[in-house]
Amino acid sequence: MPERWTQRLELSDGRILTLRPIEPADAEPIRQTFPLLSPEEVRLRFLHPIKELKGDLLKRLTQIDPRSQFALVVAEPLPPGQALIGAVARLAIDEGTLRAEFAILVSRFLAGQGLGTLLMKQLIRWARLKRLDEIYGDVLDENDAMLGLADSLGFRRESIPDEPGLVRVRLDVRPLSRRLSGAALLSRKTPD
């Protein structure tokens, strides 16, 4: 799988980076670079302040189950464990469903380069390959960058009851043929 999801990226400022699946060896570089994120970047991604990544959370973020989770990083073109990580995107299937929750973090050092869009398109691609119905994410209503990205890719917004300040964005990732056949089934009258 790694080669299928690996790309060499050249940013507009000339930096060369690698888009690739996350590896367990990325845990230490992620832990070390986490303090470089601004408190605002952390809050917008995790929805509350976190001072450091450690223990179970770090393990959960870097040791994924490929049957139900997918995660990519944008990193220096060095081996996992040595490369600094500048962006992370992940998708986790809700147990027993065909829905998955996404999360994306692009550090301010790489912002404005189109990486959020690239990462989200890769998450959508993986979701379609897994034949999921939907991907979704909970976003702070002040996170204009993430909401704008979601809007540009066709996500629809909805409020979350009892969660003021949060917006859920959803994208139907089923192929058109599956959407149309599902709509046809719903439109049929059921016998009395």
Automatic annotation (TrEMBL):
<feature type="domain" description="N-acetyltransferase">
    <location>
        <begin position="17"/>
        <end position="174"/>
    </location>
</feature>
<protein>
    <submittedName>
        <fullName>GNAT family N-acetyltransferase</fullName>
    </submittedName>
</protein>
<dbReference type="InterPro" id="IPR016181">
    <property type="entry name" value="Acyl_CoA_acyltransferase"/>
</dbReference>
<dbReference type="InterPro" id="IPR000182">
    <property type="entry name" value="GNAT_dom"/>
</dbReference>
<dbReference type="Pfam" id="PF13302">
    <property type="entry name" value="Acetyltransf_3"/>
</dbReference>
<dbReference type="GO" id="GO:0016747">
    <property type="term" value="F:acyltransferase activity, transferring groups other than amino-acyl groups"/>
</dbReference>
